[in-house]
Structures are given as C-alpha cells and as structure tokens.
C-alpha cells in the first residue's frame, strides 16, 4: 500500500517572531570554535543588572559654631562666671533673662523660699557688669522681695482663712511677672514689673 502525501501541509506563521539560529558548522562571533545548536548569543550584562538602590539624600546639617580663638561657645554667650569687667550686649541679654528664669525655677521648686536667694546671688555677681543686666537683676530681686512680704502676710492671714486665697494668688503673680520679664530681657527691652517698688536699683 502506497502512503499518500499529507493533504494539509503546515506552513510557517508569517506573524511569529523569528530567532537567529547558528548551524553547528557556523562559528560563534569573536570565536573560532564551531557552535552547537543549543548555543545562543549572550545578552549584554547591563540588561540583567539590578537598578541602583534609591537611597534618600543625606539630611542637612548646619555648620558647627566656631567660637573666637581661645573662647568656647558657652563663654561667648554667657561669659565667664565670676569674672569682672563689662559684658557684650548678647551676654547682658542672656544673663538678664537668666536673672528672672533661675529665681523663677528656684521659687517653684522650693515653694517660694529660694527664689529670693537666687535673685540676690545673681544681682551681687552681675550688678557691675553692665546697666542692662543690673536693671534686670534688680527687678528680679525686687519681685522676690515683694513676693516674700506678700507670702509672709498671707501666712498670717491664714488664721482668718483669707490667706489661703492670697497666698496662691501672689505665687501666680510672681510666676507671670518673671516670665514676662525674662521674655522682655531676651528681646533686649527695658521692663519694670508692675506693682513692684524699686527697692533695689
């Protein structure tokens, strides 16, 4: 029996992609050795390279403060404690502010007993270093003197119960006055606290 030819021949699809093949006898590019049917040209290494990591940009860092030669930044802002002689305007403002903040902190932590001591120490140390810091330290000391007198009277008036009202009112008044005065001193403004006689000048 004679085999009949296939009536439906298979034709290649013209839309299918075509790939180059290398016969066994065709040498590879840049090589003198014959190629095998399973050999194919290698893809460039850049095709398979992983993308570089997307690191965030480094955070900005302000340059470090450079104090004058032979002087630290702390000394430049506050000066040397216990030293004598005039102060710079910046040092006067800083110590004028601290002349209210330090007694305020001592006043709060000691329930109104050590604020006067802190204000007196700052006044004695810095009253001759500059007119601005002297005025601020004197105001702070005057506030503490009036506050101490008011608290003493309030302690006596506690026998009549009214002292339990005046005592916290005086404490709040002293705290508010010190905060306002410290803010004014930091801005370089002259300030006289209200309801405070200038006992110390």
TrEMBL record:
Its main location: membrane. The keyword Transmembrane helix applies. The chain crosses the membrane at residues 101-125, 145-176. It comes from the Bacteria. Residues 28-49 have a biased composition (Low complexity). It is a multi-pass membrane protein. Coiled coil: none annotated. Residues 1-27 have a biased composition (Pro residues). It is found in: Membrane. InterPro entries: MamF_MmsF (IPR019109). Residues 1-53 are annotated as: Disordered. Keywords: Membrane, Transmembrane, Transmembrane helix. It holds the Pfam family MamF_MmsF. This is DUF4870 domain-containing protein. It comes from Nostocoides veronense.
């Amino acid at each position: 029996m004679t085999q009949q030819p296939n009536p439906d021949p298979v034709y290649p699809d013209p839309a299918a992609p075509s790939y180059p093949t290398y016969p066994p006898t065709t040498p590879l590019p840049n090589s003198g050795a014959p190629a095998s049917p399973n050999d194919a040209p290698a893809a460039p290494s850049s095709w398979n390279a992983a993308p570089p990591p997307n690191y965030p940009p480094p955070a900005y860092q302000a340059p470090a403060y450079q104090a004058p030669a032979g002087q630290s930044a702390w000394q430049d802002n506050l000066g040397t404690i216990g030293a004598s002689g005039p102060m710079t305007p910046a040092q006067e403002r800083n110590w004028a502010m601290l002349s209210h903040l330090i007694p305020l902190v001592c006043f709060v932590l000691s329930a109104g007993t050590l604020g006067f001591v802190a204000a007196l120490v700052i006044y004695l140390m810095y009253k001759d270093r500059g007119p601005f810091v002297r005025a601020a330290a004197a105001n702070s000391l005057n506030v503490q003197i009036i506050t101490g007198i008011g608290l003493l009277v309030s302690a006596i008036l506690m026998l009549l119960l009214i002292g339990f009202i005046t005592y916290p009112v005086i404490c709040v008044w002293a705290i508010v006055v010190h905060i306002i005065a410290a803010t004014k001193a930091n801005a370089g403004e002259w300030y006289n606290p209200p309801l405070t006689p200038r006992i110390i000048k």
